[in-house]
Amino acid sequence: MVVPVASATRVRVIRLSGEIDASTVDLLVHAIEPHLDLTQGTIIVDLCEVTFLGTAGLRALVRAERHANRMGSKLCLVSGNTAVKRSLAVLDMLRE
Fold first, then answer.
1. Which of 27, 31, 62, 94 could form a disulfide with 89 if both were Cys (CB 3.0 to 4.6 A apart)?
2. Are 38 and 1 in contact (CB under 8 A)?
C-alpha cells in the first residue's frame, strides 16, 4: 500500500492504493492517525486506487471517522472502485 499525504491549513488528503486488509491495516492506521487531531478540519481519504477493502480496513475507517467527529472534524472518503463502494455502502459510509 502506498500512502502519500497532502495538506493545507484545515484539509488533509491521504491517498491510498493497493489492498487494505488485515496484513496492511496498520499502514492505514499509521497514515490516518496523525491527522485525526485536526480540529474543525477535513480529512479526505482517497480510496480511488484501492483495489480491495477488507473488514479490517473498514473497522479502521469507522474508528477514524468517530475520532474525527469527536474532534469536530470531518472524515470524507472518496472512491471510484465499485467493490470498495459496495463495502462502504454496507456500513452506510457511502455518500454520493
1. 94
2. no
Place of cell 475520532: 67
**pLDDT on residue 19:** 95
Per-run averaged pLDDT (10 residues), the chain, 96 residues: 58 92 95 84 92 94 93 90 86 64
What are the backbone angles phi and psi of residue 14, rounded to the nearest 5°?
Answer: -115, 115
Q: Domain limits at 24? A: 5-90
Total domains in the fold of the chain: 1
Nearest CA among 95, 80, 87, 96 for reference residue 60: 87
What would the grid cell of residue 45 be? 481519504
**CA–CA dist 87, 83 (Å, integer):** 6
